[in-house]
Design goal:
34% strand
Amino acid sequence: MSSSGLIRGTPTLAGTYSGIVTASNGTAPDATQSFTIVIQAKPAGCIGGGDSC
């Protein structure tokens, strides 16, 4: 994740991935939020990407 909060990348494996984001402004307490991203396998026979797959 970038410092601006952007999550970027190309998934290579289907699965469920979790993480925790912490935001701090120098004054306690920090804020934390857990998240989960689910990556689904590409349908069989699908070539390329986009909305059609």
